[in-house]
Specification:
The protein is an alpha/beta fold. The chain is 47% helix and 17% strand. The chain folds into three domains: 72 residues, no CATH class; 299 residues, Rossmann fold, CATH 3.40.50; 105 residues, no CATH class.
Length: 524
């Protein structure tokens, strides 16, 4: 233990205490087999013993993971990193298991096992939008919530979303990307999920934010999506890890058929890193399979792109966000560690008193362990943008492009639009892009600037001003349509997302603040 980077102490089964006198981490063992797992570097087995209560873990998760990483490195050196024993039969067995694990019914059960633990539990450590995927720390000082918003817009900019386009979000989660794309980019959006909790949550958000008719969420398997009307843009974020290697060809084939010729698709997901069969085998995958993500499988990035190519999709942009996910996971882990009592209560309410302690111990180890794995490059995170080529070399900005993709990255590196953030104790934060945020403030009689406040006594007038502007906007649109019909010519395409859509979230926020007697502040 002297070689470990942290001070570690052990309580042995008969009561003896060994190790550091002032430990950062203490492990208490009730049986010798658990101690043997520690000595052998079988961290997955040791983690299972912690979850089941056979080993107690005292101390912060960050130093605990430092010790785990050192033990894994030592175990890997002892086994030899270069050997790849019996790889062929291991891969054949894994493929057979993958086929068995990914039927429609099993996929639904596996997704619900993880995501239906309880919304209140996830709300404690995710950001306010409950974006449960890698954030994008565009600049180092961003908070978790800001980095998640930056990620949502990063995806939308990569897909080059345009007002009125048909956008599909496969595995929509709690609706963060789905709603962001509709509110900020004006798309007609459809999302799907297998989680009943997520479906109910997003359904409520769509209604509360006035997006009915523009956004829909369906409780369904991706294999059941209707292919008769193709989508312009498709995103799959944190979803394909659940698909399984044996189903990957069918998965990307389905996406290819769902995407119109020339359209864009982004696949954002966890990929295998440096660990391969025959290298360090700490049992971490078995731990995650048992307690966190049953049925999950990771593929290396090259294999993902091979499946896309085989399905008739052309990869046009690849980005590795591995360190961003490490920081995201540590942020989640730190937030969970700061709310352990509340997390326990939330799990008791959703899963029962008997299961709650096991679930909480599993998630503590899972979040911190995955953060360590991403930091050290054992796993990675890739965003892969692909097109469905039209087959016509004259399609696109450049001859031969055969798609909407410009074959440059200018659309990513132009300066991102200014963000207006509205905050109040009475509700979650609301983000609006320039010029929408500026326009809302001007309508309610505020001077747009770096920061400001809307006091409780001003809120009724602010809501009335916004509703008046909406009525005027809709009357003008109707008049333009009537004039076009009178003159017998087609109306030029109107903006797909209306002022009503843009103002609805702020109106809802103002009403909640007024009811709660809480001021609303904004900043840029």
């Amino acid at each position: 233990m002297e070689s470990l980077p942290v001070r570690l102490a052990l309580r042995l089964p008969e009561g003896t205490r060994v190790g550091a006198r002032d430990p950062e981490v203490t492990l208490g063992f009730s049986q010798w087999s658990s101690l043997a797992s520690l000595v052998a570097g079988r961290i997955g087995a040791l983690a299972c013993d912690v979850v089941e209560g056979r080993v107690t873990l005292e101390g912060a998760m960050r130093p605990a993971m430092q010790a785990a990483a050192c033990l894994l490195s030592q175990a890997g050196a002892a086994r030899g990193h270069g050997r790849r024993p019996q790889v062929a039969w291991m891969q054949a067995l894994a493929r057979l298991r993958s086929w068995v694990s990914h039927t429609r019914a099993r996929d639904a059960r596996q997704v619900q096992f993880h995501y239906d633990v309880g919304d209140a539990f996830y709300a404690l450590w995710l950001d306010p939008r409950r974006v449960y995927s890698c954030a994008y720390f565009r600049t180092p000082e961003l908070t978790l919530a800001q980095a998640q918003e930056a990620k949502l817009d990063h995806i939308c900019r990569k897909l080059m979303l345009r007002p009125g386009e048909r956008f599909l979000d496969i595995g929509a989660g709690w609706g963060g990307l789905l709603l962001w794309a509709a509110q900020h980019h004006g798309v007609q959006a459809q999302g799907i999920t297998l989680s009943r909790n997520q479906h109910a949550h997003v359904t409520r958000l769509i209604e509360a934010q006035g997006l009915t008719g523009q956004v829909r969420i369906d409780l369904m398997d991706y294999r059941d999506l209707d292919e008769s009307v193709p989508h312009d843009k498709i995103a799959s974020v944190g979803m394909f890890e659940h698909v399984g290697r044996a189903q990957m060809a069918g998965y990307f084939g389905k996406i290819q058929r769902l995407l119109r010729p020339g359209g864009l698709v982004m696949n954002h997901g966890i990929t295998a890193g440096r660990i391969c069969p025959g290298q360090v085998d700490p049992g971490l995958s078995a731990f995650i399979e048992r307690y966190i993500f049953p049925g999950g499988e990771l593929l290396p990035a090259w294999e993902v792109m091979q499946h896309q190519a085989d399905a008739g999709l052309e990869v046009v942009d690849v980005e590795n966000l591995r360190p961003h996910y490490a920081r995201t996971l540590w942020a989640w882990s730190d937030r969970l560690e700061a709310t352990l009592h509340e997390a326990s209560q939330a799990l008791v309410a959703s899963a029962g008193a008997a299961s709650a302690p096991r679930i909480l111990r599993a998630y503590r180890l899972y979040l911190a362990g995955c953060a360590m794995a991403f930091e050290r490059g054992w796993v990675s995170l890739h965003q892969v943008v692909a097109t469905r080529p039209t087959g016509d070399v004259d399609t696109g900005l450049l001859r031969g492009a055969q798609s909407d993709y410009p074959f440059s990255r200018d659309h990513l590196y132009t300066e991102a639009p200014m963000l207006y953030k509205f905050k109040s104790k009475a509700s979650g934060d609301l983000i609006m892009l320039e010029p929408n945020g500026r326009r809302m403030l001007e309508i309610i009689g505020k001077t747009p600037g770096a920061q400001g406040i809307i006091q409780v006594h001003q809120m009724a007038a602010a809501v009335a001003a916004l509703e008046g502007a909406i009525a005027q906007d809709e009357a003008q649109r109707q008049a333009e349509a009537a004039e076009a019909r009178r003159q017998g010519h087609a109306l030029q395409t109107q903006e797909a997302i209306t002022l009503r859509h843009r103002a609805a979230p702020l109106i809802e926020m103002l009403r909640r603040c007024e009811q709660a007697g809480a001021d609303l502040v904004w900043g840029v």
